[in-house]
Structure formats: structure tokens, C-alpha cells
């Protein structure tokens, strides 16, 4: 009984062993058949007729754009290459080999086309990973080596940061000419994007392919390459938030420069601070750009405009401050300044001078008054004196009335005339001195105010020009961009 059981289990074990060996046997037999018995040589180009080329179908499957390096002008992408060709010498009849219809062998064992990326920018030129090759019983071979491809890409920065980039990936056989290896694309639509992982910085627009067949005068052979073009568009949100908006804000701060009153004493330092912060942004932008002089990026033009405006603002602020602090001791106001700045421009900018009696009349009206000495100030101060002392301002004229006044006083008070007369005369002299001094001060402050008003008009003019320029340049730059949002 026990012996029978033992025999049975041994039998099943042997049977299962036999079955396994039967399964493995086919593949082993097939390998032996393909690579030993048939005299296969992997260096042989698998063309049945040597005068015909081997047809190789080629395609790329783009996985991800990992990095676009604007400074070194290259692009790093993760891709799978897909190559299929027909090998007449790797065929078998599947039914003879236990229905084994596909065989997977290492790349080193069979012939593979030597397709390389011509415009590679990596240190070890070929980055493909040597994966296995799939052989089919009908002779078709499939090889899909993945790889990280760093390729050169001429970066065109003209429209930065609203730019599109076209990066070529040129594939071709390194040694086989067109007569030996007929390279064709497996899909006329271009690269396969079904497993593409989107990139945060770049938007993929397309991956078209073009087949080039080049023939040089020297040789009868043709050279075939497939050029895939990665068309990417920069996503502008990042640059909008981190460069454009701060830049617009800072440039609009320049307007404050002309609103800040000169007496605050901060005008120049504000201007210089704005200029410096613009410089910092310019450095940030310049760091991402390739150091090329082929083109000036759009944002560079914008920065140049804004910085020019800022520098000019500082220059004009100095002029404004100069005007503001002028006094009649050092400057006389030229007629044209009075006419152009205080007259026309003030009218054009709808500015009027509010304030006291001396300044209530607008300067245009004042300019029309021919004799400045007979202005309202003189009339008023004279009437004040006359009210108090009942006399004329002019000393020559005053004598008579003063004497009459004194006489009246003497009469009414019955005082010693000579001493009183002396006292009152000296008082009057003092009064006259004080009055003339005040009058002089009034005149001076009037002229000073004229200068201040001229400075104000200039400030306002600069403000308007600056506003128009900032708005105009911002709109012009944004409008000239090929696309704003991506
Ligand atoms: C191979 O496949 C054919 C048809 O599919 C079948 O008739 C035959 O039995 C199979 N041979 C083996 C060894 O499995
Ligand atoms: C290359 O292959 C393509 C497509 O398979 C074919 O149309 C063309 O005639 C072939 N060229 C040569 C020279 O064999």
C-alpha cells in the first residue's frame, strides 16, 4: 500500500518535471535554432537582398519635459524611442516550437539600428538604456529603449516671458546611409503624447515630425533623418506675478515722486530707491536669460523704458527742487518762465493759486499789470499808514501833513512842542523802517512763491507725462506680446 502511494507521488513529480522541461525546452530549442544552428550573426544587416535597405519604423513617446535651460540653451526630456524593423534571419514557425511566438532577448544579442540623437547635448552622447528586444516569429523586431535626452535648443528670447520655443530633436542612423537603412516615422502625426506629464512652466503645443532626405553633391547616397520639434509655450502666470506686476507697481511709484512736496526733503531718495529696486528686478530677469545680444527680450525693453523714465524723473525732480528753493536774492525770474510755466502751462494743467490777497489774483492777470510797483500790496499798506497817521507814505509829501498833525496834537494837549516833536519824528522814522522792511519781505516772499508755483507746475507736468508714459509703455508692451495667458 505504502509502496504504491510512494510510486504514485514519484510518478506525478516526474510528470510535472517532464511537463516543465517540455515547456522550457521549446524556448531553449528556439534559441539554439536561431542563434547557433542557423548561423546567425548579429553584425549582419537583416536585409534579405543586400541591395535593398532595411525598413526601420521610428517613433518617440514623450514622457515629460524635465527642464528647459535658457542659459545653456538646452532641453532635458524623458522619452521612449520605439523602433520596429523586419529581420528576415530571425523568423521561425511557432507551431514547431510549442507555439512560442515571441522571444525576448538582450540587446547585445541581435542586430539593432544605430539610431542616435544628432543634437544631443549630454556628455555621453547616447543616453538610451539598453533594454531587451522583442522578436516575433514572423520576423518583426521591436525595441523600445527609454532615456533622458538632453538636446540643444536655440532659445529665442525676443518675446520673453510671452515666448514660444521650438526645440528640434533630430534622430537618424549614425552610420547607415539611406540605401542601407530606410528610416521612416511610424506616425505622420508626430510624437506620441498619450502618456505626457504636464509641465508647470511650459505648455506643450505639439510635437510634429518631419522626415528629411538629404543628398549631397559628393556622394550618391542619401542621408535620412527624422526631426521632431517640441513646440512649447511658456506659462506666464509665474512671471506675471513675480516680475510683471511688481515692476508695474514699482514704476507707478515713480508717480509719487511728483506728488511728494519738495519741503518733505524725500523726493530724491525716493527716486533713487525706486531706481534701485528696478535694478534688482532687472538682475532677476537677466539671470534667467541666455547672455545673448541677438535679441532684446520684450521685458528688457519694458525695463529699459521704465528705468529711463525713472532716471529722467530724478533729473526733473532736481530741477523742480532747484526752482522750489530759488529766492530773489539769487535769481530773477525770467519772463519766459513766468509766461510759459506760470501762465500757459498752469492754465493747461488747470492749476490756480489759492491764498491771500497778494496771491489771489492769478499770475496771468498779474503779468498784465504793467507797473508792478502799483500793485495791490502798495495800495493797501499805504492806506493802512494813512489810516493810523493820516499822512502820506512819501517822506517829501509827508512833511506837511505830519507837521499839521503835530500842530493839532500840541494844540489839543498843550505840551512842550520841541521834545514831543522830536520823539514823534523818531517814532515815525522807525515805523517807516519797519513798514518798508515788511513791504520788502512781502515782495520777496511773493517772488519766492512765484518760483514755488513754477516748481509746482513743473511737478504737475512731469506727473502727467510720467502717467501717460507708464500707462502707454505698459499697454504697448502687453499689447505687442503674441499671447498674454498660456
Ligand atoms: C498550438 O496552437 C494550435 C492552435 O492554436 C493548437 O492546435 C496546438 O495544439 C498548439 N500546440 C501546442 C504544443 O500547444
Ligand atoms: C522607405 O519606406 C517607405 C515606407 O515604408 C517607402 O514608402 C519607401 O519607398 C522606402 N524607401 C526605399 C528607398 O525603400
Molecular structure report:
Belongs to the ligand-gated ion channel (TC 1.A.9) family. InterPro entries: Neur_chan_lig-bd, Neur_chan_lig-bd_sf, Neur_channel, Neuro-gated_channel_TM_sf, Neuro_actylchol_rec, Neurotrans-gated_channel_TM, Neurotransmitter_ion_chnl_CS, Nicotinic_acetylcholine_rcpt. It is found in: Synaptic cell membrane. Residues 27-236 form the Neurotransmitter-gated ion-channel ligand-binding domain. The protein has helices at 2-37, 237-256, 267-288, 298-324, 335-348, 357-360, 363-368, 376-389, 395-413, 417-480, and strands at residues 54-69, 74-86, 102-105, 115-117, 133-136, 140-143, 146-152, 164-173, 181-185, 202-206, 209-215, 222-234. It has 486 residues and is an alpha+beta fold. The protein folds into two domains: 24-235, Acetylcholine Binding Protein, Chain: A (Distorted Sandwich), CATH 2.70.170; 236-486. The strands form two sheets. Strands 1, 2, 3, 5, 6, 7 and 9 form a seven-stranded mixed beta sheet that branches. Strands 4, 8, 10, 11 and 12 form a five-stranded antiparallel beta sheet that branches. α2 runs parallel beside α4 and α4 (298-324) runs antiparallel to α10 (417-480). The two termini are 83 Å apart. The relative contact order is 0.09. One 2-acetamido-2-deoxy-beta-D-glucopyranose binds at residues 95, 98-99.
